[in-house]
Write a structure and sequence with these properties.
It is built from 9 helices and 9 strands. The chain is of the alpha/beta class. Strands 3-2-1-4-5-6-9 form a 7-stranded parallel β-sheet, sandwiched between helices. It has a two-stranded parallel sheet with strand order 7-8. Helix 1 packs across helix 7 and helix 3 (63-73) runs parallel beside helix 4 (100-128). The radius of gyration is 18 Å and the shape is globular. The model is unreliable at 256-261 (pLDDT under 50).
Length: 262
Amino acid sequence: MTTALVTGATAGLGAAFARALAAERRDLILVARDGDRLAATAKALTDKYSVQVEILPADLASDDGCALVEARLGDVDRPVELLVNNAGIGLRSGFVENSIEDEERMLALNVRAVMRLTHAAVPGMIARGHGDVLNVSSVAGFGPTAPGSTYSATKAWVITFSESVHLTLKHHGVRVIALCPGFVRTEFHARAEIPTGDIPDALWLDADTVVRDALADLRRGRPVSVPSIRYKVLGGIVRYAPRPIFLRVIGRAAKTVGRPGH
């Protein structure tokens, strides 16, 4: 039985990944800050799917939290075949309004933790000749969809990083993919206090469906997964539209639009 490690595993896409992977009869390592919630999640998965679930309470915005998870990923006697870097946050206000502490925490979770955990996981995967890394990004990473926000910049980093490492590691049997969803019905926006009342129902995605499609794209060897036709179209417009035109349009319109996130 293979083992997967999922960060941000107690809610949203992280919980959906945990359910999907447990249904595949994978053993799990679940990472989140809330130890009690982790324990409850682990028990529910063990009871339903009869898999082994290890929990690692850790704050990945801290050096100690990252180091704890890195040590588990580097344990050659207990290999991790799939790493899901899902933990991340968004901020309601723009860069100027946010405290530098909040901005640095977002960078630590959305960027540094992804880099550090991937760096810890891939040497063992290369040595074994197989392994998978799935990094949760966002369609917001295709362009500055919310002027004044560094959230899009963090997710752009995840996309470029994943594509680059994918090109390097695919020759070693290791697959790397960036998942770029739009609006997903999770706790993400509520936790960040980002208003979502004006977002049309048609733009919302189901977390379990997003996870199913992401795992399918990972197994196809794709470097980027964009769930649903509507977000493939929207993401393509953001990513490939002439930059001066896109920046003019988004600069006029984005003040009334919420930020896509996971």
